[in-house]
Amino acid sequence: MTTRIMQTTARVTVPIVLVLSIWLFLQGHNLPGGGFIGGVLTTTAFVLIYVAYDLEYLESEVLDREVDPGASVYDHRTVTAYRRALILGLAVVLGSGVAGIVVGDPFLTQTYVHLGGIPIYHDIELASALVFDLGVYLVVVGSVLTVVSVVSAE
Amino acid sequence: MAPDLTVVTAIVTLPFVAAVLSPLLHRALGERTGYAGALVAAASFGLLLTQADSYGTVRASWIPALDVGIQFTVDGWGLLFALLASGIGVLVFVYSARYMRGEEGLARYYAALLAFMGSILGVALASDLVLIFLFWELTSVCSFLLIGHHTDDAESRYSARMAMLVTVGGGLCLLAGLLALSVAARGALGGVTFDLTAMLANEEAMRAALRESGLFVPALVLVVVAAAAKSAQVPLHFWLPNAMVAPTPVSAFLHSATMVKVGVYFVGRLRPLLMSPEWVLLVATLGLLTMTVGALLAVISTDIKELLAYSTASHLGLMVAGFGFDVVYGGEAGAFHLLNHALFKAPLFLVAGIVAHEAGSRDLDDLGGLWRDLPVTAVVAGIAALSMAGIPPFNGFYSKELLFEAAYEVAHEAGGLAWLYPAVATVASVFTVVYSLKFLAMFVGERRAPKAEIHRPPVALVAPPAVLAAAAAVVSVSPQLAVDVIVQGAIDATAVGEADLKIGLPTHLTPPVAMSAVAILGGAAAYPFEGRLGAVIERGVDAPVPVRPRGWYDWAVSTAEATSARFGPLVHTGVLRTYLTWVAATGSLLALAGFATTGAALGIDGLGVPTAVAVVLVTALLAALAVPAAPSHLVGVLTLSILGFMISIFFILASAPDLALTQLVVETLVLLIFLLVLQRLPSFYSDVRRFVLARDAGVSVLVGAMAFASVLLTAPAPGADPTDLATYYTEQAVPGGGGANIVNVILVDFRAFDTLGELMVVATAAIAILVLVMMRARGESVADRDADPVFEGDDSS
């Protein structure tokens, strides 16, 4: 699959897909979207890179790091990063739940505020559920990418 | 005055607490743990006595939604049984401390025995059906442990398993019967409840509700089967003699005084609730049949414990028969004999233990003239055995006389075939006398060659049976005293209507007295011909299989073993797709069968589908057909993706943008992952066997049919009002969650806990895959078997 056509397409589409995924994630509370959809779409962007190039490309070309060719996939720094994203996501989810307990509400209680008078946006709604959703996003990205990279390395 | 919940709970939980602590106790006390057990039993006994004059019910909520409670009722019947269990418990623990000296696994033994006593007390005092069931099954589990005490003995294991299968199987019948009762209570008492006290208080309404729902006979039969299994009634009596491989104190405690009486106890408990012509026919017949069969088998036994075991079955039959008769005497016979039987059978077992311990043999043919060596034991055995035979004025006589009166009265009223009742009762009593004399014979007459030097038994072994025999003697001398103190309360609780028991030796000849005379004289006359009698019975027992329930048991168990051994490898292959096939096929079949039994009609003609949706779905269908026909992986993946994208378009058309988006994104991701993996897969499709093809096609059609039917039957009709839940979410999404996207608000606000759970699943799956791959990279394998079962060659692609 690592054809020139594929690689050129990926170069153009991956940034768009990433922006789109973040936009979907942010608008989730009021329009179609949310943590899960955003997470899967971000994963798609990464997998697109894997399909067009290979596992090492992200590391060596995009992030400009040294790749140790002999190291196994588990010591791979991106895979470690994915694992950390997964754990961080779980922590965020649990933390947003525990935050409810701290202020005296039951576990996982969410709330929201409206902020008025902000330039350009005028009125913004801030929902604590967004934090929870961020956790969902991170878990999805972390776990799916861990699986994909580890299995495809086999 | 109502009983105290704390005290009653303490009575039941104390033995369990002690059971948990018994390993520690055993470490601290060693052989003397038995005395600690006796103390615990005595504490329960004493606490029971403090509650003796406070009948009533106490309750603490347990599962409020189903109205299940920790509910205990103290009444005469429960009190009698609980006092027997804890009182005899004291003596058995004292006896055990001496008898079990030097045995192994004592900590386990005492733990099981204590837990067993606790469960019996629980059954006696609990009055919530769920709680009763719980304790009922606990007694079975504990007795399994006790019967199988000698774990390295095959016979011990066999018998323990047999007792477990029979009594726990009966317990399952009990569960079904209790559920039937609680279903009826919904109509009769106006709500879901498992409160037995309330049911007994409204027996008329309960019976009417049971009849109305057609559950009366099923409930009756199920409960009686459960009681019969527990109380060793014919044809489930065979486990009781086998259970005699247990240590003798266990036999005395479980198999004469307590556990086997649980069935009888429960029959007495439900007697006022289920009394009807069907009850009389079933329970009285069952009881008398058991009484006769048990007595016949006892006559041909040569092992003293086996003789006592069959005799126990026979006497349990007597009690069940008593409770079966719908006359006042019947209930009196059952309740009074429960006390009497415990008082004479427990010491007889303990005597058997002494004889086996001191004379080294349990074979009646080896034993004779033991009174010279064991004089105190002989006196105890004399009182108990004469009581067992029902010789006046010993206590067994009074309760047996009550049974005769009940049987006679029922026959007198009903006439015809009902005359069989008194006739059978008399015949069974003749054999009772025969085997009682046979038991006594080992103490009198010539001294036979003993296998070992006969020692004097220590006090700790003789005292417990002596105490029990003394109690039996007191009841014998003054039966009215026992009735006034304890039995009358039990009779009141089990009687249908008013019952006031006056008991004493008969003063003039009545038909029941004549029956007793026939039984005793007949028994005495038949005893000299005991050998010839035994030969006749033997011939009956050796008849072809149908009259041997133990043969049926063995056949059922071995068949089940063979079948599962053959069936197991078929289902449990270790190959994931086999499991998938079985689960999908049976799940779909069960669901379809469920739909079929409800007779729900599929509303196919109401399917109005817009043209756009129809086009999309037909395209999806064509793509689905193309998937298995694909010539290569690439085509297969692409056609599968067409199917997925069509479904996401269908979601858009059905105004579910969130679902559509998810489907779209996931579909894309899956397609990409396939593309990533495809380069490494072999590019050929192997030949597929016809059978596998047909099986897979069948399973997929089945799953499809199930999904189709489920959607049609469970989805609300088009144009129907939104459900309450849907309305709630629509109205609450913006004010409650602050979001206009209801799906997302449900995910993160209303049902965030579910989402959290799903995240855990996703994370666990990722970690599991990581670990599996890592293990393979390190050269480990999950199982030792190194053959890779995936490549069996049947449909590997």
From TrEMBL, chain A:
Source domain of life: Archaea
Topology in the lipid bilayer: Multi-pass membrane protein
Ranges annotated as spanning the membrane: 12-29, 35-53, 85-104, 124-151
The keyword Membrane is assigned to this record: yes
Subcellular location: Cell membrane
Annotated keywords: Cell membrane, Membrane, Transmembrane, Transmembrane helix
Major localisation: membrane
Any single Pfam family the record assigns to this protein: MnhB
InterPro entries found in the cross-reference section: CPA3_antiporter_subunitB, MnhB
Keyword field contains Flavoprotein: no
Domain Na+/H+ antiporter MnhB subunit-related protein: 5-146
Protein name: Sodium:proton antiporter
Organism: Halogeometricum salsisoli
From TrEMBL, chain B:
NADH:quinone oxidoreductase/Mrp antiporter transmembrane domain span: 126-414
The MrpA C-terminal/MbhD domain, residue ranges: 619-682
Occurrences of domain NADH-Ubiquinone oxidoreductase (complex I) chain 5 N-terminal (ranges): 64-110
One Pfam family of this chain: Proton_antipo_N
Bilayer-spanning residue ranges: 6-25, 37-56, 76-97, 109-127, 133-151, 163-189, 209-229, 279-300, 307-329, 335-356, 376-398, 418-437, 579-601, 607-627, 634-654, 660-678, 699-717, 756-775
Subcellular location: Cell membrane
Membrane topology: Multi-pass membrane protein
Highest taxon of the lineage: Archaea
Keywords of the record: Antiport, Cell membrane, Ion transport, Membrane, Transmembrane, Transmembrane helix, Transport
Entry keyword annotation includes Ligase: no
Domain MrpA C-terminal/MbhE: 694-781
Name of the molecule in the record: DUF4040 domain-containing protein
